[in-house]
Amino acid sequence: MRALRFSAFGGPDVLSVEDVPAPTPAAGEVVVEVHAGGLNFADTERRRGLYLANEPLPETSGFEGAGVVTELGDGVAAEWRGRRVAFIAPRAHAERCVVPVHKLMALPDALDFVQGAAVPVQGLTAWHVLHTLGRVQPGDVVLVHSAAGGVGRLLVQLAVEAGATVIGSVSREAKAAQVVGAHHVFARGPAFADEVRRVAPGGVTLVVEGVGADVALETPRLLAPLGRWVTFGTASGPVPAFDLETLYEKSVTVSAFWLRTALPREVAARAEREVLARWVDGRLRQSVTECPLEDAARAHRRLEAGLTTGKWVLRVRG
């Protein structure tokens, strides 16, 4: 089978499409014939050796995809055979991928494989960040960093639906027009904090971000008393050490979300239901850019340089 591989850490040029043996499922697993694979910032970090760096090389890229279940391991219900699914699993950017059955999401007929591959990582991350950890409520003032990005666009839409006033940040002014539905949008520059305070003089009640270093030190100062800060990534670098004493004045809550966490099944299942329902009926809309597997290096370059908006998906088949 064809797979997007890298044998050393480095820039996008280390990626190549290679022929490798097809996998077989163990007990509790299936093989998915992959049609499309979602591209995430974590893919660039894995390629650079900044994420899961202790796992051996060579490696197949990718953490999510969509396709058809073709093989079942022991103990897997026969009803999964032939099902259209989206999934979260490593080595997804290949023609076949082994997936634990509990990581499968049945794909509604209304979604094609490219749309399906755009759902799992960003859709579930946005839901859990905003609802499971952020506990968004009507009347909240929510600051969404990188609001033109894949997760950011979904966070904005979910927060507006929940009845919050939403402030979106973007890394450069040119991206502001790509933010869907926010009440205010500001580029992160020297005047950013003042602009946020102007529209939220009492502070923001919830900050959600996957940026890391570039926004971390300013975040506690922008929060309202009893404010919440949920981080889910470090695209600009790790969060610098800061004194926890700075959180006491406003009694701030800081939390972090990682999609690899083993969540209670009822929590995970609710997120899957809610996200898929909104994707199908249009309450969640995502800009999806598609490119062939062989063009993955170009997609990595653009994503790593912050030149993308919405979601990029690699076409594996068809």
Task: Provide a descriptive summary of the structure in words.
With 318 residues, the protein is of the alpha/beta class. It has two domains: 2-118 and 286-315, Quinone Oxidoreductase, Chain A, domain 1; 123-256, 3-Layer(aba) Sandwich (Rossmann fold), CATH 3.40.50. The protein is 25% helix and 27% strand. Strands 3, 5, 6, 7, 8, 15 and 16 form a seven-stranded mixed β-sheet that branches. Strands 11-10-9-12-13-14 form a six-stranded parallel β-sheet, sandwiched between helices. A three-stranded antiparallel β-sheet has the order 2-1-4, with no helix packed on it. Helix 3 packs across helix 4 (150-161) and helix 3 (120-133) crosses helix 8.
Number of strands: 16
- CATH 2nd-level architecture of the largest domain: Alpha-Beta Complex
- How many distinct domains? 2
Average per-residue pLDDT, rounded, comes to 96
Low-pLDDT runs of 5+ residues are: none
Describe the biggest sheet? 7 strands, mixed
Based on secondary structure, the structural category is alpha/beta
The succession of helices and strands, N to C, reads: EEEHEEEEEHHEHEEHEHHEEHEHE
Percent of residues in helices comes to: 25-40%
Taking the alpha carbons of the first and last residues, their distance comes to: 14 Å
CATH topology of the largest domain: Quinone Oxidoreductase, Chain A, domain 1
Name of the CATH superfamily of the largest domain: Medium-chain alcohol dehydrogenases, catalytic domain
Strand content: 25-35%
- State Rg: 20 Å
Number of H- or I-type helical stretches: 9
Shape type? globular
By CATH reckoning, the class of the largest domain would read Alpha Beta
